[in-house]
Design goal:
Serine Threonine Protein Phosphatase 5, Tetratricopeptide repeat; globular; 446 residues; mainly alpha
Amino acid sequence: MGDELKSPPNPPTAGLGDWTVFEEDPRAVRADGLVALGEIDKDEGNYSDALRNYNAARVLFEELGDRNGRAKVLTLVGEIHLHHGRYDQVTTCLKTSLTLFQEVGNKPMEGKVLGILGNVFQEQGNYTETLAYYNQALIIHQEVGNRRMEGIVLGNLGTVAQQQGRHNDAQNHFNQALAIHQKVGNRLLEGIVLGSLGLILKDQGDATQAIVQFDQALDIFREVGNRRWEGNVLGHLGLAHKQLGHHTDAISYYKQAIAIHSEGGNTLSKGMVQGYLGTLHMELGNLTEAILQFKKTITIYKGTGNKLWEGVFLGNLGDAFLKQGALEEAADHLQQAITICDGSIPPAVGAFMGSLAEIRAKQGDLTTPKQLRSEGEPLVVGHTLEHGKFLCKKAWVHLSAREHVPANTALTQARQLAEQRHVTQTSELGSAILALSEALRNPGSV
């Protein structure tokens, strides 16, 4: 019959290529699942669980001989170590993943890892390595046509140039990045770059125009609903208003930023802004409040396991105790800071050595300060603000030894650096220069 059901034809017994079902190795499925779980753990801040899942996935990828999978996991592990400031472990993970991506020819991921390695060295103040990695990453992103990542790396290059005081180069990089982000329609990254341009203007002493840029960035972050970056730019608005001497406004912006970061669980960002607040109170002479804010910040970084930022703020706390006249307490915190940051953040170590040298000189020890000066100054050269503050400490050491000519020389050099960065008299460096100038006018008071 015409409508009779017919049996399907028998499958061919030859040419099985069209019929073969390739089953995925269950270990690969398990490894991918562990990576996904690790991502969830990381997003929720459960870093130890994330590391456990990532490392379990890495073992499976190694068993499978999947170099690409292994490299991706090592990159994720490295990012967690970077979050906690464990730079040696970050570098080990990322250099291994970079080699693997190069072996398998995964150019986009090779570019990404080169960029992260740039971030690692940037955080440590090693700008030579930073620029080398960023420039390699930029070439790859341009080669593969990844405009988004090209814009991000250009922004990173702008930040390095800004930190080195190369403002024209920084603006050039940021403007290139801004044009890319606007062309591809990435509003979030557009806002981030506008904020970066605002920071350059602030560093150049034009805090009023910086505020215009920050306000534009703030509007974008609110438009796209990114509370984390809204909090970041509110912190920057606080810095700009502080520079203008609008201390009440600065404190208001800092408090808004802290509230947003607390709400979003952005612990590290919250700690940073509390550090800004502590620095402002220290500059205003509110040393009790400054010490309270620095202690809160240190507690945050201890809780997150970020030893290096813990070390930085231990040093700031030591400086607050120094201003308070609590010399031994100051020396204890500064020594802890030097121990933690040694080999990782040279400018901070140099600055803290300068403070410790001042303390020992005030205590009548004229030998130790000379050693600290000779070891510390090379670490701050090229870092304008840190070098300026170090020179003020150096001048105090000379004054303690009644060496007025070298003290005046150090003060003149500090003033020149302060002029480069357009610092205000109420800033930490500005107030240090004023106090030192007064002491040199009245050497008998020292």
